[in-house]
Design brief:
Elements (H helix, E strand, L loop, with lengths): L1 H5 L8 H8 L7 H6 L11 H54 L3 H4 L3 H8 L4 H12 L7 H20 L3 H6 L4 H5 L2 H9 L15 H14 L9 H9 L4 H12 L2 H7 L3 H18 L1 H9 L5 H9 L8 H14 L1 H14 L1 H4 L4 H9 L7 H9 L4 E2 L2 E2 L4
Antiparallel strand pairs: 1-2
Helix pairs in contact: 7-19, 8-12, 11-12, 12-13, 12-14, 13-14, 16-17, 19-20, 20-23
């Protein structure tokens, strides 16, 4: 049209351009193609087919709108739940700070506090509650931590100047000291919560974790450094100041269950496994029989869970909630949690063989729903023939 108005000659149209010229409009999307008739160079649609396509298109639009509405409702619900959760956490923080912590001795065992405890301790007060619940029976001070750390640093410096392992023995280092060498601790630190990238070399908490583990090996040379300790220390570092984390760490490892495992007291470990199996059979008889049939003993999965207090096996936020109740109920809750995991996945585990069960329990799913998980734990009864955990 422009060329005709201006009197300019126009080039002959290509076949493709000719098709476009015959159209009343140019489709901008597949929607337009669905709604309009076929191009002029193609046979027209029969009326029935055109009507059918229009109906199909309208149905597609309705379905798309339904999906959009469903997604919008889902997002709205998630937002409401998040706001509700934030409000409940905010209210819980006020309760913990104003009512519970100032009156800890009188309120810590009350029913109200125990119920609040089960729901999870707010992150901002978690460290304080853990410290109070774990206690300090060993009477460790900040000054003692500084002394142990200074001794550890001195030993590391001595090691760096001594080359061969034989020379180390001549220098008078014990077997426990050798096990707690800088190299072994460094190796384990690099494996601690690798996804967070905060404990590895160059990370903000690398030196802190290294210091606590080194100081502990000097504080308890009879125990030394054992793999799995780095995860426990790391969780405490995330919730407490360094010296307080060391105090909680040392007192936590001094508990009977942890000491039995970290000192590899086979007799006591077998006692714990036997007690666990009593409650296993009581709560989950079908799965217990399946495990027995496949010769799957508790040590295959329990050792890793107990060594790291679930911090390696569960998502970190869920592990912290397990720690919350563990600080309240003690070692019993570690084994109750284990039974809760087995109950949650009972249907899946009963269909697996030895290898697949061991693999599954070694690496649990990462998307564990917290409420469903704790509901499963709550359903576990820690009483067998009128005997509680400690009695068994």
């Amino acid at each position: 049209e422009y060329e005709e108005k201006t009197g300019r000659a126009h080039r002959p149209l290509s076949p493709k351009q000719n098709v476009r010229k015959n159209l009343d409009f140019e489709p901008l999307s597949t929607t337009a193609l669905i709604l309009e008739d076929r191009p002029a160079n193609l046979p027209a649609k029969p009326a029935e087919e055109a009507q059918k396509h229009r109906q199909q298109y309208e149905e597609m639009v309705v379905q798309a709108k339904k999906r959009e509405l469903k997604e919008a409702q889902k997002r709205k619900k998630q937002l409401e739940e998040r706001c509700k959760l934030e409000d409940s956490i905010g209210n819980a923080v006020v309760t913990w700070n104003n009512e519970i912590l100032p009156n800890w001795e009188t309120m810590c065992c009350s029913r109200k506090v125990r119920e609040l405890w089960w729901q999870g301790i707010p992150p901002s007060v978690r460290g304080k509650v853990w410290s109070l619940a774990i206690g300090n029976e060993l009477n460790i001070t900040h000054e003692l931590y500084d002394i142990c750390l200074a001794r550890a640093k001195e030993k590391w410096r001595s090691r760096s100047t001594v080359g061969a392992e034989g020379e180390c023995e001549d220098a008078g280092f014990s077997a426990a000291d050798r096990e707690a060498s800088l190299e072994l601790i460094k190796l384990d630190i690099s494996r601690t919560f690798p996804n967070l990238c905060i404990f590895q070399q160059g990370g903000p908490y690398h030196d802190t974790l290294h210091s606590i583990l080194g100081a502990y090996t000097c504080y308890r040379p009879d125990v030394g450094y054992v793999q799995g300790m780095s995860f426990i220390a790391a969780v405490l570092i995330l919730n407490l100041d360094t010296a307080d984390a060391f105090i909680a760490f040392s007192n936590l490892l001094n508990k009977p269950c942890q000491m039995a495992f970290f000192r590899v007291d086979h007799g006591l470990m077998l006692t714990y496994f036997a007690a666990f199996e009593v409650f296993f059979e009581e709560n989950l008889p079908k799965l217990f029989a399946h495990f027995k049939k496949n010769n799957l003993t508790p040590d295959i999965y329990l050792i890793d869970w107990i060594f790291t207090l679930y911090s390696k096996s569960l998502p970190l936020d869920l592990a912290c909630r397990v720690w919350d109740v563990f600080c309240r109920d003690g070692e019993e809750f570690l084994f109750r949690t284990a039974l809760g995991i087995l109950k949650l996945f009972e249907d899946i585990l009963t269909k697996m063989d030895f290898i697949h069960i061991a693999q599954f329990l070694t690496k649990l799913p990462e998307d564990l729903p917290s409420e469903e998980f704790f509901t499963s734990i709550a359903a576990i009864q820690m009483q067998s023939r009128n005997k509680k955990w400690a009695q068994v």
